[in-house]
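[Discussion] Sanity-checking designs against the backbone

I'm trying to build intuition for which residues belong where. Below is a structure token string of 194 positions. I'd appreciate it if someone posts a full sequence so I can compare it with mine line by line.
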């Protein structure tokens, strides 16, 4: 199984699958294409897709939130690999839209990949992963509301992606940046409903 420690590699694997089937792709097919059963690439993937133009598909942020909730709870329970229920795995996305979203994301992924490296790893290893999982759980719980606030789900996606990438690359500085973005996101949501 692949362990993706950068965004471009993860996107490349999914793009290959999207090129094979431009009609509909199930969540299970996308996860299979990513070639991993670990938590950090899944957070990276869901975050990237929510930050992309795919977030304009009705209920896509809510579907993504369900995946993040399931993953975050499993991290908090100490599981090593994720499990998702069948009803989530059978959900579909238009393959052509997924392919164009990946193309849209790739330049930014290349830039980010050059910046990440292991540092302050105590924030992302061992007990450090639990505050990240709890934060992701809170973000996911508010994502259905974010469908009503323009651009907030994209910020949530970037934050989730940053947390997943921080876990995958052992980059505690990136985790700190994601915590800051979480505070900004909370401000957006509060302002949106004020």
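Best answer:
Here's mine. Compare freely.
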């Amino acid at each position: 199984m692949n362990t993706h420690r950068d965004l471009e590699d993860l996107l490349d694997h999914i793009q290959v699958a999207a090129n094979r089937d431009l009609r509909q792709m199930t969540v299970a097919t996308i996860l299979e294409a990513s070639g991993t059963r670990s938590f950090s690439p899944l957070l990276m993937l869901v975050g990237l897709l929510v930050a992309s133009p795919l977030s304009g598909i009705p209920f896509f942020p809510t579907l993504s939130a369900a995946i993040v909730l399931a993953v975050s709870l499993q991290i908090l329970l100490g599981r090593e690999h994720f499990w998702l229920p069948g009803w989530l795995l059978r959900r579909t996305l238009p393959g052509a839209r997924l392919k164009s979203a990946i193309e849209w994301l790739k330049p930014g992924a290349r830039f980010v990949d050059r910046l990440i490296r292991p540092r302050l790893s105590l924030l992302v290893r061992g007990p450090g992963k639990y505050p990240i999982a709890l934060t992701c759980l809170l973000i996911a719980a508010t994502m259905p509301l974010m469908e009503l606030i323009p651009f907030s789900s994209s910020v949530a996606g970037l934050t989730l992606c940053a947390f997943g990438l921080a876990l995958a690359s052992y980059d505690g500085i990136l985790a700190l940046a994601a915590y800051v973005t979480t505070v900004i996101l909370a401000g957006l949501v509060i302002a949106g409903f004020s």
